[in-house]
Design brief:
Layout lengths: L6 H4 L1 H15 L5 H14 L3 H13 L4 H5 L12 H14 L1 H4 L3 H8 L4 H24 L5
Length: 145
């Protein structure tokens, strides 16, 4: 596929702001592995090859196992993920698929069993950020490096 509009060149101030958001998200207290699980799961749902390529590699560098990455799209059917990770993944999916039913009360309450409101906010904003990057990459045919 040929890359479409280059948003970095066309809207440099917006691109810089997106990188600022990403820099802020990288400083949040959730663990690096949790951040990568959010990025990979949202990117799977959004079918973003660019982001899947980037974040699976990043996760492996952080020590994530190939098996967990391979089974991430079936996280509900395996015991490879902790209850806390499953709560994170549920929020990630519901934020990514917000048009279906929003973030359900049961998902929010489940997360509240493990996380403070501040950490839940971090999970939500992490999902929002990767969804924005997914939409940029998919709509512009951003090439995989």
């Amino acid at each position: 596929m040929e890359q479409r509009v280059n948003i970095q060149q066309t809207l440099p101030a917006v691109w810089k702001a997106m990188y600022g958001l990403s820099a802020s998200v990288s400083q949040l207290s959730i663990t690096p592995i949790q951040k990568e699980l959010i990025k990979i799961r949202a990117s799977q749902i959004n079918q973003c090859a660019f982001c899947l390529n980037m974040h699976t590699r990043d996760a492996l560098k952080l020590g994530e196992t190939p098996q967990r990455i391979f089974l991430l799209n079936a996280w509900r059917e395996t015991d490879l993920f902790t209850p806390e990770e499953k709560a994170i993944l549920a929020i990630t999916e519901e934020v990514t698929l917000i048009h279906q039913h929003g973030v359900s009360e049961s998902t929010y309450q489940q997360a509240g069993q493990f996380f403070s409101p501040e950490t839940i906010a971090e999970i939500i904003i992490s999902a929002v950020a990767i969804n924005t990057w997914n939409r940029i990459a998919v709509s512009t045919n951003l090439p995989i490096d």
